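Hi all, long-time lurker, first post. I run a small reading group and we've been trying to get comfortable going from sequence to structure in the token notation. Rather than ask abstract questions, I figured I'd post a concrete chain and ask someone more experienced to write out its structure so we can walk through it together at our next meeting. Sequence below, copied exactly:
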Amino acid sequence: MRFFTAIFPDGKVSAALREERQRLLAKPAGRPSNEFHLTLHFLGELNGQTAQRAAAAVSRLEWKRFEIEVNGISIFPETGIVFASIGKGSVELSALREAEARSLSANGIIVKEERRYHPHITLAKKNSSILPSEKAGSVGTFTAESLSLMSSAPGVGRHLHAEVLKVQFR
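-- Answer (accepted) --
Happy to help. Here is the structure in token form:
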């Protein structure tokens, strides 16, 4: 099973993201709005014992709540992924990500990232039907209150995510 860590926006921001996705895409597609999330680390395939070590590492993280502003919609040109960018909160996300990588490493899990971290929320994957001239302003702001360790299993047409562990921020 594959695993990743993520922060989920609140219902209000998720609803705004769903509206922006529907407004921008000729054929609205992509993940259900209750699955919008900011990935901190993709951990890849983990066996049961390694997943338990990942959960232990994530559970040791202590972090303060912080505000995250979700900005305009864009596309990663190399992949065609449609995403919402992050403004305020990017520095905190990067610091949390680094702390998480240290905790995972201390538990024997080395995270190898091939691309520079670009905090974002994916709206749709490889969808060429976005209207290229359209851009949204600020989608909304939410408080990051927790970090989740998620499992990801193949499903019909998409991966099915399940929360394994949630760590509340102070």
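A couple of things your group might point at:
The helical segments are 11-24, 48-59, 90-106.
Residues 2-168 form a domain with the Cyclic Phosphodiesterase; Chain: A, fold (CATH 3.90.1140.10).
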